[in-house]
Amino acid sequence: MDSFEINKIIAAVLMVALLVIGIGKLSDIIFYVDKPKTPGYAVDTEQAITASANISETAEEKIDIAALMAMGDLTVGEKVFKKCAACHSIVKGGKNNIGPALYNVVGRQVGVVTDYKYSKALSGYGKEWTFEELNGYLIKPAKWIKGTKMAFAGLRKEKDRASVILYLNQNSDNPLTLP
């Protein structure tokens, strides 16, 4: 290959580079966009946070527990409870695992199993496991009771929550009557 051919190759590469740069500059001139002096718009964050908190509080208060429990199915609850069985026992006289035994849990005070070490948040909660409490807790435990050591993501589907609550209620010496 002689020097003339190398010069042609280098000239072709430079021409392509100049052409690409030139087209870029030309398109900037043709399609000029006038940028605003202040980008975007201001959002009042305090008002937005308050509004979203009010929406979530009203959504939690409007849950009709009777309608929710009517959606439940014991066989589905038994299947879904398998997620819970990795940490909890459901049999009568069952021992505590990573989490406390859940036999007789519906209607029981929160954090009262004597041979299990609860987090401070659960032991000081002071309520009992009603259908409403269990529903709220099963949506996302860490959000319902802040400071709980239960690291479960929660059950998003209403039917799954209702079914698990029915299953927990059934596994009791004295099941509560459904709302």
Structural class: mainly alpha
Instruction: Write down the overall geometry.
Output: elongated
Q: Count of DSSP helices?
A: 8
The unreliable regions are 55-60
Biggest beta-sheet profile: none
Percent in strands = under 5%
Write down the overall mean pLDDT. 84
- State the name of the first-level CATH class of the domain at 65-170: Mainly Alpha
Task: Compose a concise summary of this entry.
Helix content is 51%, strand content 0%. It is mostly helical and 179 residues long.
General description of the model:
The chain contains 8 helices and no strands. It has helices at 3-30, 45-61, 65-70, 74-84, 120-123, 131-139, 141-144, 158-170. It is an all-alpha fold and 179 residues long. Residues 55-60 have low confidence and may be disordered. Helices cover 51% and strands 0% of the residues. It has a domain at 65-170: Cytochrome c-like domain (Cytochrome Bc1 Complex, Chain D, domain 2, Orthogonal Bundle). Helix 4 (74-84) packs across helix 8 (158-170).
Core attributes:
mainly alpha, Cytochrome Bc1 Complex, Chain D, domain 2, 8 helices
